[in-house]
Write a structure and sequence with these properties.
By secondary structure, the protein is α+β, with helices and mostly antiparallel strands. The protein is built from seven helices and seven strands, in the order ααββββαβαβαβαα. The structure holds guanosine-5'-triphosphate (GTP) and zinc ion. The site of guanosine-5'-triphosphate has 10 residues, from α4 and α5. GO terms for molecular function: GTP binding; GTP cyclohydrolase I activity; zinc ion binding.
Amino acid sequence: MKKSPPAAILGPDGKLEVPDDVAEAVRTLIRWAGDDPSREGLLDTPKRVARAWREYCSGYGDDPAHHLSRIFEEVGGYDEIVLLKDIPFQSHCEHHMAPIIGKAHIAYLPRNHVVGISKLARVLHAFARRLQVQERLTAEVADCIWNGLKPQGVAVVIEASHACMTARGVRTPGVAMVTSRMMGVFREDDRSRKEVLALMGLKE
Ligand SMILES: Nc1nc2c(ncn2[C@@H]2O[C@H](COP(=O)(O)OP(=O)(O)OP(=O)(O)O)[C@@H](O)[C@H]2O)c(=O)[nH]1
Ligand SMILES: [Zn+2]
């Protein structure tokens, strides 16, 4: 299902207008957390929170496939792995709406086409800036590159820390969740998979 956010209407100050029901929802949450939304320091907070959430979730208004619409004929017969390593990203988990903070490694083995390298990070952010689980984020990024570039292989590895595990719940800081999706040669061929994992600085 395609999701798209309600229209963004800018107020006279150039900032996003916040509907009353959205601001009221934040006031309800502040009361639920134990504070008084009518005290001085919290008066503007509902609007700030509402705008912040539109920013955290700006991926709903960003079509990831669009970033791969400009592809180039392979440059100079280059037929080796292309890897964008250690891409920092932020997301929010769909269970607690708490931050997921981590880094991604995205690689592909071109067939006929390459893409501007920044586009791999743009695809990642378009999916990350939504409510996510890490497994789906990993799969969506890999599938999008697979479908957009039709390469010989795609490898995506994501390492991230989940605030729902560090700041609440089990409260266990310092743990990273690691997920991967290997497609094409990286799934079928051991040597190719080893090579891409080594380039990522990971051992099989
Ligand atoms: N697999 C997966 N689990 C996640 C992700 N983000 C959060 N979770 C987990 O989702 C689970 C939700 O479990 P529930 O038992 O429904 O919720 P909860 O009572 O808040 O669980 P605790 O976090 O253990 O306190 C938790 O185990 C979270 O750690 C993710 O990206 N992938
Ligand atoms: Zn969570």
